Amino acid sequence: MAFSIKPVLVKNNRRRFIKSLVAGTTVTALAPINIAWKDIEPTADIFKILPKHLEKGDTLGLVSPGGFITEEQLAETIKTVEKLGFKAYYRASVTAREGYFGGSDKVRADDLMHMFTNKNVGGILCTRGGYGSNRILDLLDFEAIKQNPKVLIGYSDITSLLVAIYQKTGLVGFHGPVGISTFNEYSTKSFEKVLYKPKKRYKYAYEREKDSENNSDFDKYTISPGKAEGELIGGNLVLLRTLIGTEYEPDFENKIVFIEEIREKPYKIDRMLTHLLMATNLAKAKGIVLGIFNKCDIDTEDAGESFTLKEVLIERLSTLNMPCFYGMPFGHVSNKITLPLGITAKMNADKQSLILTEAAVY
CATH 3.50.30.60 in the chain, residues? Predict the structure, then answer.
C-alpha cells in the first residue's frame, strides 16, 4: 500500500514556528513527499497530517504500548479485527509481559515504530490501555512517524501517544476503541463513519449506555451554555495531567477539549482539573466536552462528606465562561464514539451535541 502525507497548515503557536525555522525545518524539506496543500497562511506553524482512510481488507497492526494482554485477549482481538473486515498483523512481542507492561519500554516502542514504517500495515490498533505509553515517548522516532503517517487508534493510556504524536508531528490520531473493547453496533458505526466512510460533516449520534438509567455517571447535562468551534484535543484526564511540563504537553488554546476518566473519586477529579487549570492554557480553550466519568461519583457511604462528581465538574468548569457539557459517549464505557485529535468540530452545549466539520482521513 502506498502512503502520502496530506498536511493542512494550522494557525497555532507562532513562537514554535519561529523556533522551527531557526532549527532549519523548512517547507522545502518536505518536497519529495506527495503533498496536498490547503488553506496556507503565513502565520501557520503546524502541518496537520491526515492519514489515509482505512479500507476493508487492509491490514491492521496490533500493538500493546501500555499494559500487557493475554493470548486469549489477543485471540479475541483478532476475531474483532476480522469481523470488522480487516486483516490482523502482529509480532510475537504483542503478548510480551514485564511486570504490568506489555514488554520492556524498548520492545513496546520498537513494535509501534515497526507498524508505522511497515508499508504493508494500513493502520495501527492498540490492543489495550493500562499504563506505560508515556514511558516510551522519548524512544519514538517522530520524524519516521511523520514520514509514514497512518491511522493510530486507542484510548485511555493511549492518550499519551495520540497527544504526543499530534504535538510533535501534526498527525491526526483517533481516540476510539482498543482491541479488547466491545465493538457493539454503536461503537462500530462511529468507527466506520470516521475512519473509512469519511464525510466533511459528521454529527455524532447519542445513545445512552444500556441499563444505565439509574446511574448518574451516564447522565447528560449542560455545565455552561453556548456554541464553539475549534480543533479537537484531549483524552483521559490522568494522562493529560501526566503530560504537563513535558515537551508533549497538549496545547488547549482555541481548541475544543474532550476529557474522560474512570474510577477516580470526586476530590481526585477536582485535584486534576485544578492542576490543568493552573499549569496549562486550558482556560483559553473554546469549549469542553466531557465524556463518561465512569465509577467516579461518590459511594453511598460518602454522601454528606463529599461533593458529588457533578458538583465538582460544575464548580471547576462553569466559571471558565466557555461552552461545556457532560455525557458524550466516550471513555471507559461500551458505547464509544471515535474522536480525531486535530480535526475541526462544532459543539453546542445547550443541545449537548458535537459535529465534525471536516474529514479526519483522506
Answer: 202-356
Look at the domain 202-356 and name its fold.
Glucose Oxidase; domain 1 (3.50.30)
> Quick check: helix, strand or coil at residue 59?
strand
CATH number of the structural domain 59-181 = 3.40.50.10740
Active site residue 260: yes
For 197-220, the pLDDT digits (tens) are 999 999 999 999 999 999 999 999
Tell me how far the alpha carbon of residue 286 is from its chain's centroid.
18
**Using CA atoms, how far apart are residues 75 and 88, in angstroms rounded to an integer?**
10
Q: Which residues contact 107 (CB under 8 A, 6 or more apart)?
A: 93, 96, 98
| Amino acid (one-letter) located at 161 | L
Residues in the chain: 362
Q: Which residue do the cell numbers 484531549 mark?
A: 234
In this predicted model, what pLDDT tens digit does every residue of 300-349 receive, in sequence order?
Answer: 666 678 999 999 999 999 999 999 999 999 999 999 999 999 999 999 99
**Helices 266-279, 309-317: inter-axial angle, 10-degree rounding:** 20
Strand 227-236 and strand 344-348: the pairing is antiparallel
Among residues 261, 264, 332, 358, the one annotated as catalytic is 332
Backbone angles phi, psi at 283, to 5 degrees: -65, -10
pTM of the model: 0.88
CATH 3.40.50.10740 domain range(s) in the chain: 59-181
Q: Which of 260, 261, 264, 358 is catalytic?
A: 260
What confidence tens digit (pLDDT) does each residue in 36-93 have?
323 323 334 668 999 999 999 999 999 999 999 999 999 999 999 999 999 999 999 9
Percent helix, strand, coil in the chain (nearest 5)?
35, 25, 40
> Are 339 and 175 contacting, i.e. CB atoms less than 8 angstroms apart?
yes
Say how many Å lie between the first and final Cα of the chain, rounded. 14
| Of 64, 133, 156, 160, catalytic | 156
- Tell me the pairing of strands 59-63 and 44-50: unpaired
